[in-house]
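Input for the complex:
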Amino acid sequence: PVNIWFKIADTGCKAKKLGEDDPRRIIHACKVGLAITLVSLFFYFNTLYDGFGVAAMWAVLTVVVVFEFSVGATLGKGVNRSIATLLAGSLGVGAHHLAVLSGEKVEPFAIGTTVFLIAALMTFIRFFPKMKARYDYGLVIFILTFCLISVSGYRDDEVIAMAHKRLSAVFIGGATAVLICIVIFPAWAGDDLHKQLATNMEKLATFLQGFGDEFFQISESEITEDKKASLQAYKSVLNSKSTEETLANFAKWEPRHGRFRYRHPWDQYLKVGALVRQCAYSIEALNGHLSLENQIPYEIREKVQQHCTKMSTESSSALAQLALSIRTMTRSSVADSHILKAKVAATSLKSSLKTGLWPDTDLLQIIPAVTVASLLVDVVTCTANVGEAVNE
Amino acid sequence: PVNIWFKIADTGCKAKKLGEDDPRRIIHACKVGLAITLVSLFFYFNTLYDGFGVAAMWAVLTVVVVFEFSVGATLGKGVNRSIATLLAGSLGVGAHHLAVLSGEKVEPFAIGTTVFLIAALMTFIRFFPKMKARYDYGLVIFILTFCLISVSGYRDDEVIAMAHKRLSAVFIGGATAVLICIVIFPAWAGDDLHKQLATNMEKLATFLQGFGDEFFQISESEITEDKKASLQAYKSVLNSKSTEETLANFAKWEPRHGRFRYRHPWDQYLKVGALVRQCAYSIEALNGHLSLENQIPYEIREKVQQHCTKMSTESSSALAQLALSIRTMTRSSVADSHILKAKVAATSLKSSLKTGLWPDTDLLQIIPAVTVASLLVDVVTCTANVGEAVNE
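Predicted:
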């Protein structure tokens, strides 16, 4: 029993943390409750219930399955559901009439065959990548509505009245969900995508900022665990692709809001995101060298340290600036100058390696330094690419 | 009009390709059609329809939304839906009875409040990562069923009969979907995960196999476009995380099949997958150096080429062997010997760099070679890690 209480308390703590991390989650939960309570009014008031009858159920059903966290997802599902219900409803009524014409005996077979064909065809269409990304839900609802309308039609000849009621209920449910989602503290997928891109760039900047110190072990003081953790934050960027694509898909459904207009170039975000990930891959390779024991002899360290640190901090500043200019949606030339400085540092590193005579140094000992330098050059290149893409 | 015909033809081609790439897609589409046709029999036969009435609709609805491509996904959704309907149905009936006790005037308010609270609570629970991964669908259905049952109860006092019919219909629909999914050419998510892991490792092996030749430009003959494309196949591994996690989640629902038992250690696959991705990140860094123009002076090339090529091909063979031993589910020591050889090559490269006098060579010219060598060492380390994890 103590164990159970402990588990309950633990769950409570987790719930508190979830709510604190993103208070919009609590708001979202209340919004869903509100929307469902609103559509269930159809059942309480006689005037409303008389119009719809059992079909009012479809309004509740629609709200529950359509209401998602972000406006884009809700709108996407709502629009998909409404249009699919409309199309499939009309087609279902048509199929029913054709089946009735075919005579009483043939009717079940005619309906059965149509249902089989349409269901199989639509299921196959769901595999098209483009359909899957934007209209997957619509296709499911299309199959559902078509089958229900044409099959129920066999039992209930007032197919048109039924389809009409059901369609209205779906519209009302979808509209309620979308309205409440947009009106009360909306959570925009576009905002999230925008912020996530900037945050990802900042994570890389944090790593590069700390990298120089860490690698050359400049600061004698113990590096705290906290700082180590913040250096490793960039790891989440490596796997950011699917989240970004989902958010961009949702964002495309969203109307004008705040600083974003409808048809904001969301694909550009995916492009920048891909470049940022490219940068993160190089950083991942750098990170591998961080954990190796590096005993770089003093004379070599002296030669490369300055340039490497410079490259790393300048790339870091450039990324931080680019993140800032994404956040503020302004074009800034500060990042360009940082990139330029990083490039200059890369060039002077190269020439110092070229001109500097390396008398009797053990080549093996230089390897870590050279590798790191070379990877940093990659990072600088990536950063420059990100800079170009952001300014587009 | 020509344009339209062109588009239709284009879509046809795409559909053909989708079907050829994975014929299971066509089978899946037919299976869905069949399952829906089967449950719609409830409407055609009087004996069946008399028992269920309109509730037969829920069987069709369940089949449409539960039937997924893989057995794991279908089973997961089916189990979620059945259990959630059962729980929420009982709770809904209970809430209805309590509300009736509270008197006619208070009833709507009592129901409204309960619906709001339960809906908000369950929506919030969906944010828990663990619940989201496995029980998200169940929670949605819980909200849906609870609201429908308790709200409809206000209009129809035969709540228990209604809930019972609906629950039976959902069970029948879920069972039909699951049975047809498992019995006719089942597509197991576990198989897919298993194969994908092996394929990913083979992609890396292909890259490493070709890398030596490409980098040192050994073969004078033009490298064909086809070969270039196969070298770049590894890129898909970089972003494989979300697919692997989804498949593993589905696979956990699957019963014993073929060579996999229930509770096959799917998490181990995720672990190996993460290590394979780690390896892919190093390869990505290597690939960056492939595209750079590399003018390595002859004397340097001579020194490093042999060892680098050895490291690369041995790692490649090791990965290919590991992939094979995953495919055949056998433990093989061949991979270990390849890893050992790669490690030996790495050591001898290091010592050749150490002992070899590098008279008057321009350090700048060595950098690409040294960097590549160093990255190859990383790849060898990663490969060794993968080897260990696979053998576990």
